[in-house]
Amino acid sequence: MEASSIQVDLGHLKVIDNRAVEEQSDIDARASTAVQRLVDELFQLPPDTAATEQVGFGRVVRLPAPIERLPREKPLPKREQLQTRWERFAQAKGIQRHKRERFVWDETSQSWRPRHGGGKARPSIHSKATEWIIEDKEEGPPGRNPFRRRKGSPESRKAAAGPTASVKSTKATAKRDRVREAQQKLSERMKSAKDALDHQLSIAQRSTASMGAYDRRIDGERDHRQRGKSRAGELNTPSQYASERKRALQVADAVLQGIS
């Protein structure tokens, strides 16, 4: 065997012999040659005196850089997420995102008020701002208060929510009825399938010669086997000969009558 046909990678302590194996008996010899080649290459490396003194025994060498590159231990770092069309446009135009202030100036009350929530700057029925004049476009009975029909008042919310709440309640009731009907149908189908499965199981348990008497059941399996009543054997003694003779004659008479 030629030692020059063996490739040695000291960085990974790996020996490669790509030749095909012709006979099974050559495997041990080729393996011994490869190991011997690896040991010879290791002893040709210069010893590391400092590392040897630190270990205290033997011969320590530093392995060279590996020839073959192994796959990465960890995945490649993720690429930076590409900018959206708006982000590219904003960067090109110099547009910067600014956080909206929580408080804004209310011209009506001449004070700083929250942008949203209770007491917000926009005049409403809940704010302290006074709306002393509004335009009444709705027709109604005389003497009614048009300010109570403003958007946001309890009366307007009640009037707006009345029909909607009724429709939602009707839809919810119809939905519950449909769900209940579907559950009932599913329960009936499951009961029918369970009865059919029990019937098939009872047939399978009685399909053996022993009527399932010696079959092993699995955990949770119902026992559908039909067991007959055991009959006690009669004594075969001289005192019973007369009754036995009588039964035999009755059987013979029945057979002869059937033949005739």
UniProtKB/TrEMBL annotation:
The lineage of its organism: Eukaryota, Rhodophyta, Bangiophyceae, Cyanidiales, Cyanidiaceae. Residues 109-128, 133-247 are annotated as: Disordered. The keyword Ubl conjugation does not apply. This is Ribosome biogenesis regulatory protein. GO terms for cellular component: nucleus. Residues 113-125 have a biased composition (Basic residues). Residues 174-198, 214-224 have a biased composition (Basic and acidic residues). One of its GO terms (biological process) is ribosome biogenesis. Belongs to the RRS1 family. It comes from Cyanidioschyzon merolae (strain NIES-3377 / 10D). Involved in ribosomal large subunit assembly. Pfam families: RRS1. Keywords: Nucleus, Ribosome biogenesis. It comes from the Eukaryota. Its main location: nucleus. It is found in: Nucleus.
